[in-house]
Specification:
- It is a single chain.
- The protein folds into 2 domains: 188 residues, D-Maltodextrin-Binding Protein, domain 2, CATH 3.40.190.10; 85 residues, D-Maltodextrin-Binding Protein, domain 2.
- 34% of the residues lie in helices and 20% in strands.
- Strands 5-1-6-13-7 form a 5-stranded mixed sheet. The protein has a 5-stranded mixed sheet with strand order 10-9-11-8-12. Strands 2-3-4 form a 3-stranded antiparallel sheet.
- The radius of gyration is 20 Å and the shape is globular.
- Bound molecules: glutamic acid (GLU).
C-alpha cells in the first residue's frame, strides 16, 4: 500500500515535471519562440485595422440573423500559430483571424462584434451546415467533395501538404521515404486522405488536433506530421531547435472561407470583401505581420473563383 502510494506520488511529480518541461521547453525556452507567433518589437510589421462598413444590406439569411444579434459568429482554429491561434489570455491571432476580421468589417461588424468559435477540421462541415458558425476561416481547402455540403469564397491562399519532422531527422527527405514510418495527421483533413494512400506505405496515426500530432512528434512517438506547409512552418518556427519542415509540398490546398452552401448573397459579399482588401493592401500587410513571420514568403493570392 505504502509502496503504491509512493509510486503514485512519484508519478505525480514526474507528470508535473514533464508538463513543466512541456510548457517551457516545447513552446518557449532555449531560443524557441513562444506563443502564437504574434509580431513583437519596435520594427515588427504592423497589423492593418479594418473599418466596419455601415448600412450593409444583404439578402442573406445568415447575415440578417447576425445583424439582428449584433455580432457575427466565426469558426476558426486555435492551435495553428501564425494562422489561427488562441493564447492563454484567450486572444486570437494569425493570418486567418485577420482574414475573418477583414470580411466581418465589410459585413458591418467590427472586431469586438466577432465571436470566434474554435472548430477543428473534423467537424467543419457539420458546424457550418448546422448554422453554428456564420462563416469559417481555418486553413480550409476548397474542394468538390466539401462543396456538396458547404459554400466557399476564395481561394485567398494556396498551401500544399508537406512533412514536419524532428530537427535531427535524416532519413525522411520526402514522401518517397515514408515506408514503415509513423505519420500523424488530422481527422477530416485533406492531407490525411492523401497520406493514407497505399503508395506511401506509411503507418498512420489519426488525431483530432494538430497540436496533439506535434506533441507526438516532439515526444518521439511518431516520425512525421503531415498537413499544409503553412501550418507546419508555424510549428517549426515555434520550435526551431526541435523541428523542421521537409520542404517538398505534394498536394495543392487552396484556402477558402466556408459558409452555408446555398447562401449565394453571403458568398458573393465575402468574395467582394476578399477582393477589396487585397486591392487596398490590407491583405499583404496582414500577411507580413502574421504568416510571413513563420517563413512563408508573401505571394499574391490566387484568382478568386466565383460561382
Ligand atoms: N487544408 C487542409 C484541409 O482543409 C488541411 C488543414 C486543416 O485541416 O485545416 O483539410
Amino acid at each position: 500500500m505504502k509502496l503504491r502510494k509512493t509510486a503514485a506520488a512519484a508519478s505525480v511529480v514526474l507528470a508535473l515535471t514533464l508538463s513543466a518541461t512541456a510548457c517551457g521547453g516545447d513552446s518557449g525556452s532555449a531560443g524557441d519562440e513562444p506563443g502564437g507567433g504574434a509580431a513583437s518589437g519596435k520594427n515588427a510589421p504592423k497589423l492593418p485595422t479594418y473599418k466596419a462598413a455601415t448600412d450593409v444590406k444583404l439578402d442573406s439569411k445568415v447575415f440578417k440573423a447576425a445583424q439582428k444579434r449584433g455580432k457575427i459568429i466565426v469558426g476558426a482554429k486555435a492551435d495553428q500559430p501564425y494562422l489561427g491561434f488562441q493564447d492563454t489570455s484567450k486572444k486570437r491571432s494569425g493570418f486567418d483571424i485577420e482574414i475573418a476580421k477583414m470580411v466581418a468589417a465589410d459585413l458591418g461588424f467590427d472586431a469586438k462584434q466577432i465571436e470566434f468559435k474554435t472548430v477543428d477540421s473534423g467537424v467543419r462541415e457539420t458546424s457550418i451546415s448546422k448554422g453554428q458558425v456564420d462563416f469559417y476561416v481555418g486553413t480550409y481547402t476548397i474542394n468538390d467533395e466539401r462543396k456538396k455540403q458547404v459554400g466557399f469564397a476564395g481561394p485567398y491562399f494556396m498551401a500544399g501538404a508537406d512533412l514536419l519532422v524532428r530537427k535531427d531527422e535524416k532519413s525522411i527527405t520526402g514522401t518517397d521515404k515514408l515506408k514503415g514510418k509513423k505519420v500523424c495527421s488530422i481527422v477530416g483533413s485533406t492531407p490525411l486522405q492523401e497520406i493514407k494512400k497505399p503508395k506511401y506505405g506509411a503507418d498512420i496515426l489519426e488525431l483530432g488536433k494538430y497540436s496533439d500530432c506535434v506533441k507526438q512528434l516532439v515526444d518521439g512517438q511518431v516520425d512525421a506530421v503531415t498537413t499544409d506547409d503553412a501550418i507546419l512552418k508555424g510549428y517549426a518556427a515555434q520550435r526551431p531547435t526541435k523541428l523542421k519542415v521537409v520542404g517538398h509540398p505534394f498536394t495543392k490546398e487552396p484556402y477558402g472561407v466556408g459558409m452555408n452552401k446555398d447562401d449565394k448573397a453571403l458568398r458573393d459579399a465575402i468574395s467582394d470583401a476578399l477582393e477589396a482588401h487585397e486591392k487596398n493592401g490590407d491583405y499583404k500587410k496582414a500577411y507580413n505581420a502574421t504568416l510571413g513571420l513563420s517563413g512563408s514568403e508573401y505571394t499574391a493570392p490566387p484568382a478568386l473563383e466565383r460561382y
